[in-house]
Amino acid sequence: MASFVKVRNSLGSQAGSASPTLRAKANRKLIGPDPQAHGLVRPLVHSVQSRIRQRAAYFAYLENMSMTIRSNTSRNYLLRLGLVGLFCLGGGLYFLYDGMIGWPQKRERGFDFLQYIEDNADLDEKDQLDQWKMRAAEKGWPTDNPLDPETNKPISKIKINDQFLYAGAAGLAALCFLSRVVFMLGRWVECDEAGLRNRGGQAAKFSEITALDKKKWQSKGIAFVQYQSNGRTGRLRLDDYFYDRATTRAILRQVESRIDAAKIVNGKPEPPETPVVSAETVDISAQATQV
User: Fold this and answer.
1) For residue 196, what are the β-bridge partners?
2) How high is the pLDDT of residue 273?
3) pLDDT of residue 84
4) What are the strands of the beta sheet with 69-72, ordered from one edge?
């Protein structure tokens, strides 16, 4: 017993006299790798695992037929319509201003310019123009040449009336685009375990679908779901330009999975989507886990 106590005390004294480096190595052998190294690697592992879980959850959502998938009107589509409509509206107002105010005033200045030239025929052309510009500035008029560059005469009434035609055409185009924006606001198409429907009141169960026409799907992203319900036929449009692209494509895949493949016409079924995880990502995850 006494010999055991001496050996233990001897080992304790040796451990106490060991250098800090040796003690650190001994601790790493006992408790594993440096905790600080884990602190550097673990965030990378968690980031990779989090992305994999997010992708898996997304595709699980698409595959879950009991969930409702709704595709709302695309914001980019509404923004394009609105910008074009506002551009046409601005152009229409510009033409309207020219027809009502701008060009009639320019026509009046043109007659004044011709009268001034006639009254000062003894001056050369340059002096006539310079002095008339001074006269126009005194009256608060623009000092540019008021004559029509095509005829070198005051602007004709026909050209002034043309501005009203241009204003009407631009205003009509603006009305079409902006009314389309109002019409498409809040529009949607959705699909659940029973069938699909849209805000316009169209609804079709999967058992009522007679065909899925994909003739324009590859070129324009448009597919038509033809159905027959209560003795009436109808056609429901899937459009990844009008509606959000990702959810519209998800609805199309769900419809294809719930109907007979023979009903898919003018195109092939969409290939299944699978989460893409690169080999490099998997290798990093594996190496980080082993550290």
Assistant:
1) 191, 204
2) 66
3) 97
4) 69-72, 188-191, 195-198, 203-205
Q: Is residue 236 part of a domain?
A: yes
Q: Which of 253, 248, 251, 245 is nearest to 274 (CA)?
A: 253
Q: Which domain holds residue 170?
A: 75-184
Domain boundary among 160, 184, 208: 184
Per the CB < 8 A criterion, the answer to whether 231 and 61 are in contact is no
Burial, 10: exposed, middle or buried (Cβ in 10 Å; 0-12, 13-18, 19+)?
Answer: exposed
User: Tens digits of per-residue pLDDT, 35-58?
Assistant: 454 555 566 666 777 777 766 665
Statement to judge: residues 177 and 88 lie in one domain: yes
* Other residues' Cβ atoms within 10 Å of the Cβ of residue 69: 20
* Separation CA 178–CA 80 (nearest Å): 10
Residues 6+ apart with CB under 8 A from 137: 143
Q: Which residues of the chain have pLDDT under 70?
A: 1-46, 54-66, 273-291
Structural contact between residues 67 and 135, judged by C-beta atoms closer than 8 angstroms? no
Question: Do 163 and 256 share a domain, yes or no?
Answer: no
36 lies in a domain?
no
What gap in Å lies between CA 33 and CA 47, rounded to an integer? 21
pLDDT tens, residue by residue, 8-24: 444 444 444 444 554 44
Length of the chain: 291
Domain membership flag for residue 115: yes
Within a domain: 34 = no
Residue reference for tokens 């016409």: 265
Say whether both 177 and 116 belong to one domain: yes
Query: Residue 213's domain is classified under what CATH number?
Result: 2.30.29.30
Closest CA to 219 of 266, 272, 264, 274: 266
